Amino acid sequence: MNPVNILLVDDQPAKLLSYEVILEELEENLIKAQSAREAFEHLLRTEIAVILVDVCMPEQDGFELVGMIRQHPRYQNTPIIFVSAVMLAEPDRLRGYAVGAVDYVSVPIVPEVLRAKVRVFADLYRKTRELERLNTELEARVRQRTAELEASAAQLRELNEELEHRIDQRTREREEALAQLFEAQKLDTIGHLTGGVAHDFNNLLMAVLGSLGLLKKRLPADERSERLLTNAIQAAERGTALTQRLLAFARRQELKPQAVDFLRLFENVEDLLAKAVGPRIEIHKRIPADLAPLLVDSNQLELALLNLFVNARDALESGGAVTVVAAAAEDGRPAGLAGGNYIRISVSDDGEGMDEATVARAAEPFFTTKGVGKGTGLGLSMVHGLAAQSGGSIQISSARDKGTTVSLWLPVAEAFVKTQPVVEPPATEALNTVSRPLAILVVDDDALVRTGTVAMLEDLGHLPREASSASQALEFLADGRDCDLVITDHAMPGMTGAELARHLRSAFPGLPIILASGYAEFSEDHGLGRMLRMTKPFTQEQLQAAMDKALSGKVAAA
Length: 558
Fold this sequence. Notes:
Layout: E1 5-9, H1 13-23, E2 29-33, H2 36-45, E3 50-54, H3 62-71, E4 80-84, H4 90-99, E5 103-106, H5 111-218, H6 223-249, E6 258-260, H7 262-277, E7 281-286, E8 294-296, H8 298-315, E9 320-329, E10 342-349, H9 356-361, H10 379-389, E11 393-399, E12 403-411, E13 439-443, H11 447-459, E14 463-467, H12 470-478, E15 485-489, H13 497-507, E16 513-517, E17 532-535, H14 540-557
Parallel strand pairs: 1-2, 1-3, 3-4, 4-5, 7-9, 13-14, 13-15, 15-16, 16-17
Antiparallel strand pairs: 6-8, 9-10, 10-12, 11-12
């Protein structure tokens, strides 16, 4: 227990000594003063717990001294005990209490009483100071805890804000992913529908073109009839070109990917592209000479470039520039693109641009913002299909009055060696043909196509036979009937043409087979990589050329 300071004020040293003797048992720190001035000096220098004051002193009596002490802010609540050697009247006692005394002790002093009273006030002082200390500590702890809570609250707010931001970000990412998935599913659905329509339309065109070709040969010479037939054939051929674009979008055209030097390819078609866009549009190119070769069908890539340039021309009605940039692609890879090395080919124009809604639908087939008769809406669809079927992707970025950039991501031909263009034999070099009539089996589930093909073969002087399914064809050949050549459609119910070809190769190894189809649904090869193929619709001349190729081995042997 720490001792407290007790101030004893009396003008008589003997009385001070008696007080000291009586109170020394308390083991407190006793401070003596013989005048008011000396008492104030101690009060100003030292923290006093209890004050004992004599009532009768020569310079200032106890009442005046206590009144002065109470005026000091630090000692307004300090316990003050009056010590009186005379009997005080009741008014004097009331005066003492009024000026600030808390108790009286009369002389002669009873030591036990004085010690008891001083002890009570000293203990009270200690407990008060301890309580103040505890309150101070408590306030400090409250402040510390409050600061901690405020820091925790601030941290919690930051975490909540971060969580809300992450939730918003994840929500946006999810919405974007769902939108991309929806677009991919929509385009895939449109692709399947388009491919099926193109296949059926090719069969119809096959019958139309075949019949028109035969009719043209058999009608008597008449200028008007000739003009009408030619017009009908050209319309059917335009339909054929249209189905090829549809098949490109549906990713069902037959591609012949090879290593392509893009700089060389672009230089070969640059004049054609310049004529397509006209003299008011400048063409700029940034294609490095050491660019890695692309793995793509060169003919289809040329057609894709032509489509992009025509679109750019239509966006530059008042003239402008089209820029082609090719570089190894590293950043900004489209979502869903497989790993590997790619070349990004960008075709940019500084035309009127497109808004966000138009960009979202730009690759849809038949969607166009051009006027009536100015476009089919299949240009970007064809480019999109070529990129996807080639193992790449397409990106379209555009803004109103800022132009449009279409970027093709195409794979690098890492495992392929650059090949020289295949030199086609001169048109004057005709293939050897078979002079005798041939027994030819025509297999097709479409009666119109089958009838048209048979009519073309009969016109060539051959002996065609018909089968509406692969099973009928197998039955026909199993009967031991003569057959020099089989021409079969691929997309047939039950057994496909590719499956039929595998059976025939096994059962009749030397029998030539031509596989025909409205689109390249057998692009996965089926182990028939060397088999001759024809794309519907085909003309009588194309049919004759395919037959000559298929039978060239027999002709050479003969």
